[in-house]
Specification:
Layout (H helix, E strand, L loop, with lengths): L3 E6 L2 E3 L4 E3 L1 E5 L2 E6 L5 E6 L4 E4 L1 E6 L15 H10 L2 E9 L6 H13 L5 E2 L2 E3 L5 H13 L4 E5 L9 H14 L2 E5 L3 H13 L8 H4 L2 H18 L3 E3 L5 H12 L4 E5 L1 H5 L24 H12 L5 E2 L35 H10 L6 H15 L17 E11 L18 E11 L2 E5 L2 E2 L40
Parallel strand pairs: 1-6, 2-7, 8-9, 9-10, 9-11, 11-12, 12-13, 13-14, 14-15, 15-16
Antiparallel strand pairs: 1-4, 2-3, 4-5, 7-17, 17-18, 18-19, 19-20
Bound molecules: dihydropyrimidine-2,4(1H,3H)-dione and zinc ion (2 copies).
One zinc ion binds next to loops.
Length: 488
Amino acid sequence: MNEFELKITGGTIATSAETFQADVAVRGTQIVAIGNDLGDADRVIDASGKYVLPGGIEAHCHIEQESSSGIMTADDYYSGSVSAAFGGNTCIVPFAAQHRGQTLKDVLETYHDRASSKSVVDYSFHLIVSDPTEDVLHKELPKAIEDGITSFKIYMTYDRLIVDDEQMLDIFAVAKRHGALTMIHAENNAMIKWMSGKLVETGHDAPKYHALSHPRTAESEAINRAIALAGFVDAPILIVHVSTEAGARIIAEARYDGRKVFGETCPQYMFLNAEQMDLPGMHGAKLCCSPPLRDRASQEEIWRCLQNGTFQVYSSDHAPYRFDETGKLNAGPTPAFPKIANGLPGIELRLPLLFSEGFMKGRITLSHFAALAAGNVAAIYGMDHRKGSITLGRDADIAIWDPDVQRVVNAEDLHDNMDYTPYEGMKITGWPTTVIQRGQVIIEDNELQVGRGAGEFVPRHTIDLTAMPGRVAPELDPARNFGVDLDL
Ligand code: DUC
Ligand code: ZN
Ligand code: ZN
C-alpha cells in the first residue's frame, strides 16, 4: 500500500501568501504533505510546466434561483456547478433567496434540496433577506448562522427586495451580534426609478439606455450610506459588484478609517463596457446587468482597484438569463429596458479571464491570483478552516493550470445552460486542465469525471474580524452615552 492516494509533482504552487516549487500529496480528502521527495502514491499527476493552485471559490452566483419577478435562472445546480468546475472552481456560494412572506427555514430547505442532489462541487449559500420580520431577525437568522450560513445579502434597490435604512440597521445589528457578514447591493433606488422613468417617457427605451438609468452616483450614494449605517453599529459589510471608481474610493477610505468593509468587483466591469450595448434590435439586452457596464476609462479604474487591493473579492455574479422568452425577453419580444432580466453569465470564464489578462499579462502576481480565486473568499466568508489554500490539513481542492493552452471564447464550448456569452471571441491564454475536489479528480481531459451530487454542503464559521477592530458610534458606547447599554 502506498503512503498517499494522490501526488501532484513538478508544478509551481501558489497560495495567497507565496509561490514555490514543490510536490503536493493527498490522503483521503486532505492535503497531507507538501515538499520534495515525498513517498509513493497510488496516482501521480505530473504538473511540470504548470501551476498548482487552490480550487476556485465562486462566491457570487445565482443558480436555480427565482428572481424577484419570478424568472428562473437558466442554470440549475447541475449545469451551474459543472460550468463552475470546468472554469477551475471546486466550491460555489450561490444565493438562497427569501421572497417576501417566506420563512428562512423554507427557503433554506428548498435550496438544500436543489443543490444536494445536483451540485458537482462543494457549496454553501448566502441568504438574500428581503423580509426582515421580528422572527427572521431574532430567531431565523441566528439559527441560520448557527447552521453555517454566515452571510446574507440585502438590496438597497428593486421594489420587491429593497430594505430601508431602519431595516438595514436591524440586520446589521443581528449580523454583528452573531458574527455574520452582510453583503450589499448598493444602488440608490429613487435615482434609478427617476432616470428610468424619464428615459422611457422620452422614447429612450432600447437596452443600451439601461446603462444610463443606473447613474454612477446612484452607486456611490448607496455605498456611502451603507457604510455609514453599518459603521454606526460597527457591523462588517461587503459591497458587492462595485462598478465605479467613485464607489471603490469610498470603500478604500472607509477601510483606511478602520471600518469593517470589504469590496467586490466582477469581470464584466473589467472586460466589458456600455458602448458594446449599442447593438441592433434587442441584442443589447445580453449586456443588461446591475450595476450596469460603464465606459472604457472605468474598466481601467476597476482594474487598478483590483490591483491595489481595494477589492478583496472578484466574483462572476453569474446571473444566467437566456436571450429568449425564458430569460431576457420574458416580458415580450421587445421589452422596454426596465423589463429586461438583469444579469450576465460568467461562472466558467471568471478565472480564465483573470488568469489570462491579469496574471499572464503581468497585472497581478500568481499569489494575488490565488487570493482572488479562492484565498480571500475563504477567509472573508468563513471557509478557511477547509478551503482556499494549498496548505496542510485543508481539503485537497486543487486546480492545475496549463499556461500553454490558448482558447478563443465560444458560447458553445461552455458548460452552462446559456445561449450566449458576453465574452464571445476573446482570446484566453491559460486554462485549468485538471480540477481536483477533496482529493477526487472532477475534471480531466476536458471531461467531467464525477456524477451529480458529488459536491457537499460546507458549513461556514462566523466572521473573523481580528484584524478589523473598528469602533461603535459614541451614541452607542456606554462609556460615552450616559451609560446607556442598548445590548445590540
Ligand atoms: N444583482 C446581482 O447581484 N446580480 C444580478 C442582478 C443584480 O441586480
Ligand atoms: Zn446585486
Ligand atoms: Zn448577483
